[in-house]
Design goal:
3 domains, alpha+beta, Double Stranded RNA Binding Domain, Alpha-Beta Plaits, 8-stranded mixed sheet
Length: 354
């Protein structure tokens, strides 16, 4: 472990010296890049220094065990130091894991009604509001991008931008099929119905992340529909963008400005194309890589929400909580997400031989 940690300390110290060099202080771009790298190393270097000191302290106290005057004191010190050494080893293993380059990004969250008709659309609205409540708990911002209302309430589809600290790192585990079991309001016999919706989690991307050939786009301008006052009904502000090579279609009519709708639709298209690239890359890299990524396959059932039993079950880690009401109303998603992260980290530690 010591040999693995020393290069991090050496690089951190090297960056310290570089940041004081005149040629670097006069180059804002280099200085910013080095400062960012130094910041990314801060946690592992701090733990590494504590770990090395703890190892040295353990050796010193072991050498004193036979000393008549200091032996008892050394035993007491070792009772504290040895458990701390084990704690530090586990903390360092996690810090040594390869990081997901998307973890710090904002996300586009897309929910779509699947099997179950009106009941699925209603659950899209329920789950979206639960995610918004979770965002409030995390002090994230939510911006509605587009939505398609259902006649019975809820949404056939809704897309929103979630902005905040490490949004993707938390919500990337939500991608997949979510199944709901409950008695619909229209059910006169009291029978439990099963419906399903899909959730897609797409990192917000910059132009440097993905390039789009304008010749690959078909852009249609049309009249906005739905509520919004007279101006919505009398202006051709809605925009539909079709990416011809993939067949992906993005529609936006949330804004009265055609330009703003086009800009938002393009941003969602970039996110969808980026997600497609990520999935293709994962497929190419094979089963080992699939086992390591935290994002969910949209086609796979990941979770069941059973209302009669107040139960939510995550099928990936066989976790069941009887906290469905709190999950939907109070935004306690960390109770599901933290175990998923722990499981993911455990598999990564095993895969990387740490």
């Amino acid at each position: 472990m010591h040999k693995k940690l020393q290069p991090f300390i050496d690089r951190y110290n090297e960056i310290n010296e570089l940041l004081m060099a005149p040629d670097i202080t006069n180059d804002i771009k280099k200085m910013t890049a080095l400062s960012k790298e130094q910041s990314s190393l801060a946690d592992i270097v701090s733990k590494a220094k504590e770990y090395i000191k703890t190892i040295d302290d353990i050796e010193e106290n072991k050498a004193l065990l036979e000393d008549k005057e200091l032996g008892d004191l050394a035993k007491e010190e070792l009772k504290v130091l040895e458990p701390r050494k084990e704690e530090l080893e586990e903390e360092i293993k996690i810090l040594l894991l390869p990081t997901d380059p998307n973890d710090d990004k904002n996300i586009y969250l897309e929910l779509r009604a699947g099997t179950g008709g009106d009941e699925a659309a209603i659950f899209v609205g329920n789950l979206f509001r639960a995610y918004v409540r979770y965002a409030e708990v995390k002090n994230w911002k939510v911006e509605l991008i587009s939505s398609s209302d259902s006649d019975a309430g809820g949404y056939k589809e809704i897309v929103a931008l979630f902005r905040g600290e490490k949004v993707y790192s938390r919500l990337k585990y939500e991608g997949g099929t979510h199944r709901v079991q409950r008695v619909p309001a229209t059910e006169s016999q009291g029978r439990v119905h099963t419906s399903a919706i899909t959730v897609a989690v797409m990192p917000e991307v910059d132009d440097v992340d993905i390039q789009i050939n304008p010749n690959d786009l078909k852009i249609d301008v049309m009249r906005s529909s739905g509520c919004g006052g007279q101006s919505v009904n009398t202006t051709d502000s809605a925009v539909r963008i079709t990416h011809i090579p993939t067949g992906i279609v993005v529609t936006n009519q949330d804004q009265k400005s055609q330009h703003k709708n086009k800009e938002k639709a393009m941003n969602v298209l970039k996110a969808r194309l980026y997600e497609l690239e990520m999935q293709e890359q994962i497929e190419k890299e094979g089963a080992d890589r699939k086992a390591q990524v935290g994002t969910g396959d949209r086609s796979g059932r990941i979770r069941t929400y059973n209302y009669p039993q107040n139960r939510v079950t995550d099928h990936r880690i066989n976790l069941t909580l009887y906290r469905l009401e709190q999950l939907m109303n109070d935004g306690v998603f960390d109770e599901l997400i933290d175990p998923l992260i722990a499981d993911h980290q455990a598999r990564l530690i095993e895969a990387n031989g740490l």
